[in-house]
Design brief:
16 strands; alpha+beta; Beta-Lactamase; 5-stranded parallel beta sheet; Rossmann fold; 26% strand; 6-stranded antiparallel beta sheet; 36% helix
């Protein structure tokens, strides 16, 4: 039989809560504690499956208890209850591992439903960023239209990214929320990724598309790396290295570097499926028209265009320190071109004139 630990410094409320949850539907052993310190002692001795705690308690508060309990039992499920909900409390609860939040006075049927869900829910995907890229997990959830929360831990740093029907709608990293929190998480050097299904965000703070978010994260990462480079300019990634990097992306057919006027400067292709000797000028003209159209309509400067056909997807991106080049790549029709766009965004600033 599973065990539920209830923690509240209000003894009468604790008794009522214990009686309310001692039912056939839940079918679990109910254990109580009146302080965070007492609860930790129980957690160390008993095989607790679910911890339900109040936030505001003397001594060790609910948030401190959650963090300490997570260190003892990493898979422990949590429900947080408080009569004084704030955005800060909700954020700390989420980062501490709690994905359920009940406000007092609670509805007993709603609470019972949350308890049953917590006890029966299977842990989602848990992986390491050494074995799977966070950007891959993000795209998988977006393309699958999932409603999930990804929890990422990198040493002492942690963050969460929330998805609603495949859209990234919220992110938390420390005391930062929204887009900036997303970019901070994407800059983590490694760590663990945990996925929890059907988790709703506390607020909606992000409207940008996932492609736009990933491209901006890639640009920031490259910008940070460029500032850290101390080698002479001639040792930067050559054109051949750029093509090799693009070739690692699934569906890669070929790539080329054009001058902004359409003159072909370098090219690599698998077979004869791409020919930019004659088409470079057309691509350059299309890019120029796209840039002109966006600026005339009050939009930001165009950085890339994507052309889709039955033979594949042709992605073109402004490249070079001043946008004096165009980086072009062709992706097979049955492959997602987003990964190629992200890789191109990171490589484009590295292109230099010979």
């Amino acid at each position: 039989m599973k065990k539920i630990l209830l923690v509240d410094d209000e003894i009468e409320e604790l008794k009522i809560l214990a009686l309310s949850l001692d039912c056939k539907e839940i079918n679990a052993e109910i254990i109580t504690a009146s302080s965070g310190e007492e609860a930790l002692s129980i957690i160390e001795k008993e095989g607790i499956s679910l911890l339900i705690t109040d936030v505001h308690m003397p001594g060790m508060n609910g948030m401190e208890l959650i963090l300490a309990a997570s260190a003892i039992v990493p898979d422990l499920a949590f429900i947080v209850m408080t009569a004084f909900p704030t955005a800060e409390i909700k954020r700390d609860a989420l980062l501490g591992g709690c994905l359920r939040f009940i406000e007092k006075p609670y509805d007993i049927e709603l609470l019972r439903g949350s308890v049953i869900e917590a006890l029966t829910e299977q842990k989602g995907f848990t992986g390491t960023m050494a074995g799977i890229e966070l950007s891959d997990m993000i795209q998988l959830n977006c393309l699958s239209c999932n409603t999930v929360a990804l929890k990422i831990r990198d040493g002492k740093k942690s963050g969460m990214i929330f998805f609603d029907s495949g859209n990234i709608v919220h992110a938390i990293a420390g005391d930062i929320e929204g887009e900036e929190a997303f970019y901070r998480i994407m800059a983590f050097g490694g760590g663990n990724i945990e996925s929890r299904r059907n988790v709703r965000p506390p607020v909606l703070s992000i409207e940008k598309s996932y492609v736009g978010l990933l491209l901006e994260a890639s640009r920031r990462k490259d910008e940070t790396a460029s500032r850290a480079v101390t080698q002479p300019e001639e040792k930067e990634l050559p054109q051949a290295g750029i093509f090799r990097a693009l070739a690692k992306v699934a569906g890669y057919i070929g790539a080329a570097i054009l001058h902004r006027n359409g003159v072909l400067l370098a090219e690599e292709k698998n077979g004869n499926s791409i020919d930019l000797n004659s088409g470079g000028t057309v691509i350059a003209d299309l890019f120029r028209l796209a840039s002109q159209t966006t600026t005339e309509n009050g939009l930001e400067k165009c950085d890339s265009i994507v052309l889709e056909s039955t033979d594949g997807t042709l992605a073109t991106r402004s490249a070079g320190s001043k946008g004096e080049f165009l980086l072009v790549a062709l992706v097979a029709p049955d492959c997602n071109p987003t990964l190629m766009q992200i890789k191109m965004a990171s490589l484009a600033p590295q292109i230099r004139a010979n």
